[in-house]
Amino acid sequence: MNANERAIRDKLLQHGRDLFDARKEERIEFTGNPDADALLNDLGTHPHAFVLGCLMDRQMRYKKAWLIPYTISQRSGFSKFSVEDLSELTLEQVKELMSKPEPLHRFADKMSCVFYSALQRIAKEYAGDASRIWADEPSSAEVVYRFLQFHGAGPKIATMAANILAREFKVRFADFYSVDISADVQVCRVFARLGLCPSDPTQVVYKARALYPEFPGMMDSPCWEIGENWCRPHDPHCNDCYMRDLCPKLPL
Q: Is the distance from CB of 138 to CB of 104 less than 8 angstroms?
């Protein structure tokens, strides 16, 4: 690690720690819809809503993806969004709920299978209580592994879920070694423009591990924030970014 990489890492980690140590928000905003966000935040009664939201979050705008569990709850007509009721749905019924009157996901048929499979797994492996995935202060590797066991959950979704639980919900883990950075398009772009590594998801994950092996995902939130707000694909707002003094893309 050279001196500039160390300086970049330290500045990202400083902001990452500020976000990580911040007091838990009364309600974390996933969708912008108050009712949907209330459901996703209810880890006590409806932890499966959070798990389902994580699994839906791919290949479309995240706010629309996270809205799917709530919309399914409205379309199903169940008075309670319980695993007991939902797990009784057939795959064909889930496909119907996912696709009509309009599709909830770009790949409605495929994601119906993911949704259905998740409900079956939660019902059978976790006795209907998805919070058992992260209960009793498990290791970060165990939590990531449990998410990986869900159909449709790759490393990116599994580590994203663990990171949100730790950072936003303040769920206690025994360690954070296996909480990787979520190498989405925003994070990859920021890593590349900061000169840390090429904009390749696999390289970004391993570079983050090399920079801070104790908790690689600590840099996830600040990098995403930079990419979303300032380091845009076109017409970046470099002078507004707090990394401007270290960014090789911006002349001093």
A: no
